[in-house]
Every structure is written in C-alpha cells, then in structure tokens.
C-alpha cells in the first residue's frame, strides 16, 4: 500500500520526500538506477516528516519491535521505535553482530547476501515492524520476516520510503503488508 492511497493523497510531505531523493545512474554497477536518500537527511524538516508519517501510521498498532535492515533501515528505525515506545532491533549483514545470532540467506536483484539478528533480541509474541529505505523484489524484507518469525514475533507490516515497480509484481513477501511512501516515477534523476 502506498501512503498516497492511505489518506495521504496530496500530502505535501510526500512530494517533499520525493523531491529530496536523487537517482544515481549505474551505481553500484551498470544498469542500476540507485535511489539515493542521503539528501533527505540534509533537510531536517523532510527527515522529520518522513519519520512522522511512519509514526502516525504505527503509533496505535501495539508494535513492540522495530527491526531496521542494514544500513539505511538504521537511519529511520530508532527514531520510529522511540516515538512509538518500541525497542529497536538491528538486522545486520553476516559477521557484523557479536555473540549468538540466527542467519538467513537470500537473493538480491544483483547477487546473494545474508542477514542476521541476535538470538533473544525478539521474544515470542512481539509485534514487529520491519523498516528499510527501499524495496525492489522484497528479498531482503522477506529474509528479515523469516528471521523475526523464527524467533516467535508476528510481523505486523514492512515499511519503506521507496518502492520500485518490481515490488508490485515480483514481491517475495507472500502477501505480507507493505507500506511505501513514494515510487521512483515520482523521483527525478540528478
């Protein structure tokens, strides 16, 4: 579901978010149109508006865990978690977390990867939100869902700032709810 379809149609905050995201052609490899969110953080109002939109959506959903996917999910997740009274759990790439972890391998648009979560970071019955900056095929989100559910959490929804067109047809989320703020068609190449 896109924010514009959920009562935010015409909300100037969405346009401001779109306006700050730039497209970098052929990064990190030829053929990739990289959606760069770093300019969003240079404008404190747009950054705050982005977090506020997520907080408005999740504040009354009894979410106890906000799981942020490395690395850009870390930029939004802690702020959202603090605002809604939830704990933040980092979902990291292989070998980045000390101690006992559980792992999940998954396919990317251009390769393979693995993510991990600390054992015990999520408890049976926790209600979780998974946050990342972008969703393309849903592979990373799906891997995060698998990790959280393996530990007994219920994934309430996944949320991303940007949703690529592929997610509509090729999503690996198997019907799991997904909330997206903007689409690349709204973004301008820089």
Automatic annotation (TrEMBL):
Pathway: Purine metabolism; AMP biosynthesis via salvage pathway; AMP from adenine: step 1/1
UniProt keyword terms in alphabetical order: Cytoplasm, Glycosyltransferase, Purine salvage, Transferase
SUPFAM superfamilies from the UniProt entry: PRTase-like (SSF53271)
Alphabetized Pfam families for the sequence: Pribosyltran (PF00156)
GO biological process: purine ribonucleoside salvage
Entry keyword annotation includes Glycosyltransferase: yes
Top EC group: transferase
Lineage top rank: taxon: Eukaryota
Gene Ontology cellular-component annotations: cytoplasm
PANTHER family hit by this protein: ADENINE PHOSPHORIBOSYLTRANSFERASE, ADENINE PHOSPHORIBOSYLTRANSFERASE 5
Quaternary structure note: Homodimer.
Database matches in NCBIfam families: apt, PRK02304.1-3, PRK02304.1-5
Family that this chain belongs to: Belongs to the purine/pyrimidine phosphoribosyltransferase family.
Name this polypeptide is given: adenine phosphoribosyltransferase
Provenance organism: Castilleja foliolosa
Encoding gene, per UniProt annotation: APT5_1
């Amino acid at each position: 579901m896109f924010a514009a379809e959920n009562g935010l149609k015409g909300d100037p905050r969405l346009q401001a978010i779109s306006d700050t995201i730039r497209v970098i052609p052929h990064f990190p490899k030829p053929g990739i149109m990289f959606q760069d969110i770093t300019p969003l953080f240079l404008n404190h109002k747009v950054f705050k508006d982005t977090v506020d939109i997520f907080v408005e959506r999740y504040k009354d959903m009894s979410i106890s865990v906000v799981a942020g996917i490395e690395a850009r999910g870390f930029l939004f997740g802690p702020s959202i978690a603090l605002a809604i009274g939830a704990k933040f759990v980092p979902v990291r790439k292989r070998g980045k977390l000390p101690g006992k972890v559980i792992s999940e391998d998954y396919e990317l648009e251009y390769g393979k990867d693995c993510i991990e979560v600390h054992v015990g970071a999520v408890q049976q019955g926790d209600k979780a939100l998974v946050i990342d900056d972008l969703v393309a095929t849903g592979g990373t989100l799906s891997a995060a869902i698998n990790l959280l559910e393996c530990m007994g959490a219920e994934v309430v929804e996944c949320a991303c700032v940007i949703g690529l067109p592929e997610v509509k047809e090729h999503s690996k989320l198997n019907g799991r709810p997904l909330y997206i703020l903007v689409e690349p068609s709204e973004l301008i190449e820089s």
